[in-house]
Automatic annotation (TrEMBL):
The lineage of its organism: Bacteria, Bacillati, Actinomycetota, Actinomycetes, Streptosporangiales. It comes from Actinocorallia aurantiaca. The chain crosses the membrane at residues 46-69, 81-102, 123-150, 175-198, 205-229, 273-292. The keyword Cell membrane does not apply. Keywords: Membrane, Transmembrane, Transmembrane helix. This is ABC transporter permease.
Amino acid sequence: MSTAIHDIGYRHYEGTRLGRAHVARSLYQYNLRSVFGLGRGGWAKVVPFALLAIMILPAAGDIAVLSFVRTPETLIDYSMYATYLQPVIAIFLAAQAPVLASRDQRFRTVPLYFSRPVGVVDFVLAKFAAFVTALLLLMAVPVTLLHLGFLAMRQAMIDHGASNVPSVAGQTGDYLTALAGCLLYALVLSSFALLIAAFMPRRGFGIAAVMAVYLISNVVVLIAQGAAISTGGYDLAGWFNLFTPFRLVDGVQARLFGEEIAFRDTVPPAGSGPVFLLACVLVVASSLALLVKRFRKAGA
């Protein structure tokens, strides 16, 4: 038996090695495109872009009404926009979180990612950052449209004789505060939705699980708040807002950012803003830690 060595033209790679940062950045871009179905079939784009259109529609309608009535009271409060449309955001969470957290596990591609110069922490942070960006776009685009509509119509409102027209500086401050609230919503909602979806390798189960946690947490908190209010425990009812994501962030906006609270029936106690913010930080940090643990196990 003879042995022969064949020259198949193999040459060592002599180009620039882009390294870990480039891989992490590429993962972020890939995951962000995946959330909106870019680079995939047409059906993958229907849900995210339809929900984005639904989120924008009330803002566009409000600007259209403002152009006719020309009264500042017509404008939707920036900081409350996400809370008013929380069912749409919840559907986006349930539908798109499994795209990032479930598919890689179902098709067992996680070990392939870890064979490259990227660790499990980079892998999780790329997914988390992509989903945060997608949610921030979902909420910030309509709020930005509202603000641009106000700026375009402000002089017309003054000429129309409207009273209490906000100043540009004041309204811009409210807009920037609302963007900070949108970012906080995106961080909290992304972390808990990705964590739930990561434990459901099948997308259908992931969708059902995220929606179930959202609905059940709301129902349980509402029942607990009703019981507290019936016995005169209004402060206790306000503290229960810590246990459901939308009310948690709304508490930060109200008690730390000084915005009007959306859930007026159960106002968090005065001075509770730092506690609500700390709770947000704990939700994000603990969810990311558990996600790292989950994907490390999936990649083993």
